[in-house]
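Methods: example folding runs. The two proteins below were folded one after another, and each record is reproduced exactly as written to the output file, sequence line first and structure-token line second.
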Amino acid sequence: MDLLKRLSEAPGVPGYEARVRDVMTEALEGLVDELQTDRLGNLLARVHGPAPSVVVAAHMDEIGFLVSFVAEKTGFLHIEPLGGFDPRTLVAQRVVVHTQQGELPGVIGSKPPHILTEEERKKPLQLKDLFVDVGLPAQDVRDRAQVGDMVTLQQEFKTFGNVVSGKALDDRAGVYAAIEAVRRVGSPACDLTLVGTTQEEVGLRGARVAGFAAHPDIAIALDATIAVDLPRVQEHEQVTRLGSGVAIKLKDSSSISHPALVRHMRALAEERDIPYQMEILPRGGTDAGALQFAHEGAAVITLSLPVRYVHSVVETAHVDDLEALIALLAAFMETADKVDLSR
């Protein structure tokens, strides 16, 4: 799990994925025929092979912030979100402000409940109510931090029980799975382009560009999905369950998986005894939503890793589900030439 730990702990908000890309590049060297970075920062790793042309995409970015204002008198930092947050998960969290002079540790603060008015208590917490405190005099902060500095949440990657937990498993776990699948297969039965995409969390932007560069017949997005097998959640609302296998997505807000790819993935999972579950995500999307529009159009599907507490610093995934994701992806790479998209 050392590679997954390095990927999870690397900082990289949308548009600022360079350090994640460096980890991914290092892991792929020697496994692929070509490595290229495009103008949006996508990493494209190619393994030459026969038709069909297949893209496997996993996004490198994590939700985070940019500094939007440095308070003159107090040195507190106001922050602009990059990606979707539930403000309740941010109160009292540690962060890192990535300045040109180095990293500044800090904490997210908010007005304490002791002094809230009755009217303020009734209102839900909003991102505008939060700020970053780096514990330095205002002048020191102004000398070191500036508008536009990246701010990431700080959390150590942990393994406990049968799970792994940390920040940015959405979607560093997908990046990890893609690398491990390539490592296992070696020579896939397709012309493969593995893409570490940028800016997924703010509109699938990197995948749009990567799809046109790679020109896929088939595109597979790897991403986290919500596992809501939690207390007081009804069974039909749970979307996926931890420990029940890789999730083969049928649809979400951005794409409908190609029926032939769904059938092929299910058949592979059953033939090779890979645990799987079917997924319909009521809201949210993946890079498949952008890749389907490449050139004349691509047949797309998403393979998902069930994750509890998505978009928090304690995202939690089952190691067996991660193994199932890698195994199914590797099986597809070995059999991609057998897919009949006309059926």
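Second run, written to the same file directly after the first:
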Amino acid sequence: MSQGPLAGKNIILGVTGSIAAFKAAALASRLVQLGAAVQVAMTPAATQFVTPLTFQSLTHRPVLTNLFDPRSELNIDHVAAARSADALVIAPATANVIAKLACGLADDPVTTTALATTAPIVVCPAMEHHMYCHPATQANLELLKSRGVTVVEPEEGRLASGRRGKGRLADIDVIVGAIRWVLGRRGDLAGRRLVVTAGGTREAIDPVRYITNRSSGKMGHAIAAAARDRGAAVTLITTTPPPAELAFGVEVRQVTSALEMYAAVEEAVRGADALIMAAAVADYRPAQALDRKRKKSGGDEEIWNLELVRNPDILASVSGPFVKVGFAAETDDVIANARAKLAAKGLAFIVANDVTAPDSGFEKDTNRVTFVYASGEVEPLPTLSKAEVAHALLDRLKPLLA
């Protein structure tokens, strides 16, 4: 994972003649940063918006712009590129190119590569609102979907025409998420259903105030992304907005309180293979949430006694023919406390960490965890990124799913 989630992947980025072509440069840069080898192919119209040199500088590879370049070392570049591709991503995809793809036309480096490749294809439309909504464009997109093409829907917003509507190229992070999902569909967790929770619950005091904790949801979100990238069907139940990359390939259910999370988990685990409880669920909630903001009474009230009642222990309460994995965020006696939780909740293993450590815990991008197993074994890991911890967790979960 240290090399990036797309390390070793060959991705062809097809760029067509849209004003959104400048965003394709940012996408190319992101894919390279994630470890992919990126080969850019451009239609003649695309070169009017962004020069091939821009993409060559970002990818460190010559750009395919000519079907019959006599200087090419590959001889028919699009065929050679198509043969080695793990995925073809067309972003932006104009209405014209979408129509060509639907009809099987091939008269430029992008459409010829699309016909020549057997790799999965991701199409990211970008155009004026009425062009996108036109029945012909919609029919062409539906035809492409029926052939197995993944379509990343455009966003609504201000368009190049100055008007507002649906037609803006999807967010780069959403496109990256779609690529990771497409590349991972045949991963080692394909066919498995995982439920992952993330974030700290908020327990309402009144319409203004609430009780919560410092959990950012980063660890749970990283687990959901890693499981998606390895082919699992993932349901993410989270209290914090997930990153845009999880918009593709992950079913996200947003909740707020512990009781809402409990209800969502009970429903989601039906038919699941595993529940990974990374959320920091509040142990207590106010006995009664006020329907109006509580005011100071005359300014002489020094103490506010807030009555709390216990929340249900979600992980201990839900049961079924699925594997349960928990987290123990501790400040002292980390392993002893983790072992107690492991036994009380009936877990296969628990992931323990000291949240007072400078490289571990809430709101950080790294974590230093210890896996504590039902067998009694204790396995400490070094400081890793949360993405690396997520994959380590899934590596240990996978044999238990069999």
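Comment on the second run: The two ends are 24 Å apart (CA to CA).
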